[in-house]
Write a structure and sequence with these properties.
binds copper (II) ion; mainly beta; Immunoglobulin-like
Length: about 120
Amino acid sequence: MKLKLILMLASLLLASAGLAHTGLAHSTPENGAQLQQSPASIELEFTAAVMLASLQLEDADGNHLELQFKPRPAANEMHRVDLPPLADGSYQVIWKALGADGHAVEGTIGFSLAATGS
Ligand SMILES: [Cu+2]
C-alpha cells in the first residue's frame, strides 16, 4: 500500500521537524573569516547550554595543533578556548558538543590567516 507508506514517511518528517536540536549560534572567528591577526581565542556560542566535548584545531595539512582544551562537565552557552599564536595559513576548528536533550552535535569552522607585513 503506497499511500500508507507515504503517510508514514510524512508523519516521521513532521515529528523530526518538531525537535529542535541545540546548534551553534555564533562563533568568533566566524566560519569563512579571513583574518589579518592571529586570533587569541576561539569562541563558540550555542543556542542553549551544551557540554563542549571536544575541540580540535587543524591546519591545512591536517596536522592537529596543541590546544589548552579540557572537557568540563559544566554546560554553558558560551565556550572559549585560548589559541596559541598561529602562522599564516588556513585552519579548521572541529567541535563536538553534547546538547541538553542528550544529542551530540558537531561542526566545523574554517578560517584563514594572512598577517599583513609578514
Ligand atoms: Cu537533539
